[in-house]
Amino acid sequence: MSGTLRSGQVAAAAGVHVQTLRYYERRGLLPAPARSNGGHRLYGEDAVTALRVIKAAQRLGFTLAEVADLLAAGRRRRGGTAAGLGDRAAAKLAEVDARIADLTTVRTALAAAVEAGCDDLAACASSPRCPLPFPAPAPDR
């Protein structure tokens, strides 16, 4: 790849749809591209890299808003300020650990329900053998 690329070429090289490319432009994740005399969008090769970075960050669990913040922080950091990926990755790691703990609890309850032979949710809820974490009834007032 050299020089400028059109939308379809950039999207194909980054493994995204052209609509995704335009959506990221509208969200401000990618700068507006130059235009050809015929009005076609023209991108530099750095657009492919930017798209790959965005998709990688999403796979790591960052939302598009968080990706936008990371990209902006990266641009500011090149100027000498702002917290970058390290702090944000540590925060995301804590979120992932909390989700893993929650999912482990759910998995344990579901495995217990399978082991107990729970076939009917309502019948299981009224059984003292039911391992599912049904909330206690609210006290009468």
Strand arrangement across the biggest beta sheet:
1-3-2
Distance between the termini: 72 Å
Helix content range:
55-70%
H/E topology pattern: EHHEEHHHH
- Please work out how many helical segments DSSP would assign: 6
Inertia-based shape: elongated
Radius of gyration: 24 Å
Assembly annotation: single chain
Strand content: under 5%
Average pLDDT, to the nearest integer? Answer: 86
What is the fold-level CATH name, i.e. the topology of the largest domain?
Answer: Multidrug-efflux Transporter Regulator, Chain: A, Domain 2
How is the biggest beta sheet arranged? Answer: 3 strands, antiparallel
- List low-pLDDT spans: none
Identify the CATH architecture of the largest domain: Orthogonal Bundle
Determine the structural class based on helices, strands and strand pairing.
mainly alpha
The total strand number stands at 3
Number of domains: 2
List keywords for this structure.
141 residues, mainly alpha, Multidrug-efflux Transporter Regulator, Chain: A, Domain 2, 2 domains, three-stranded antiparallel beta sheet, 6 helices, 3 strands, 5% strand, elongated
